[in-house]
Amino acid sequence: MRMLIIEDERELAEAIADGLAAEGFVADAAHDGTDGLWRALHEPYDVIVLDIMLPGLSGYEVLKRLRAAKVWTPVLMLTAKDGEYDEADALDLGADDYLSKPFSYVVLVAHLRALLRRGAPARPAVLVADDLALDPACRRCRRGNRDIDLTAREFTLLEYLLRHPDEVISKTDILTHVWDENFDGDTNIVEVYVGYLRRKIDAPFNRLTIETVRGAGYRLRSGAR
Ligand code: CA
Description:
With 225 residues, the chain is of the alpha/beta class. The chain has helices at residues 10-22, 33-42, 59-68, 87-92, 105-118, 152-162, 171-178, 188-202, and strands spanning 2-6, 26-30, 47-51, 75-80, 97-101, 127-129, 132-135, 140-143, 146-148, 168-169, 210-213, 217-220. The model has no long low-confidence stretch (mean pLDDT 87).
């Protein structure tokens, strides 16, 4: 089993690589995001351990580019407990598992073995409404042959709506599913983000995919023209 560790804390990377070698893994280490991505794209690994905070490219960016290149090697992300990002983000972006630092070596090996047993996961299907397509695995959104750049929140909102086509969805439902359940702001934020989305996916194309249903919420039209 061949694995790649992308981790800029050299001592940690080396300790992991040495330990895993003793477990029968062949382990390579990269110490920045750019080098890590290059190796992950060009060499056949069975599993990748990816730190989030890296010089060059962040772990998130590495994962995004890897999936965009249709490389489905299982990825275990290392997250810092009080870091800027959390586990939900890692999983949203297509990581297969995560561990919070500091972790015990025994737990890391157990997670890696479980990932290897599972193998490369089935990728989520592309969600489509007319000529609008959202690919959750590659984090890509397109209208026809034009790429649309969405923020993480816009992406999640559109994904949620596309999973419930032609249904009336209340702002409260959206808030619960797209924002953290502990989010205590008001539903105006939903209106604001629906506005952002419309400006990207509808207005430039003269479409009305996301309808306002007065007093009830929103409806994404699957066959909208
Ligand atoms: Ca780091």
